[in-house]
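Record Chromo domain-containing protein, 113 aa.
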Amino acid sequence: GDADDELLSQELLPASSFVDRVLFPDGDLAYTNVESAVSKILNKRKQTDGEPEYLVLHADGNEYWTPRSRLVEYTSFITEYENSERVNKGLPPLRRSPRLAELDTEPTEVFQF
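=>
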């Protein structure tokens, strides 16, 4: 293979405790600069002020109830959970508006750096 196709090794990562290499059980690999990457949303409840909280499973195996306002970077996980719950209740999954769905196209050119 090409030398550029190598996975990043621990030595190539910045010397910072804020960057971690996360290998998920299904073989996916991610590099994160948070304490522990979100792996999945497990449950939902409402706080007394009405804001939803989600039970978040992190890559390190820990679970925490987290307000939606702190999960803005993880909306795809919330959408996946909400759609799963809708399907379990016999409802159709939520769909994106056609205007936004147009943004979900794959790039036509591959850029190499």
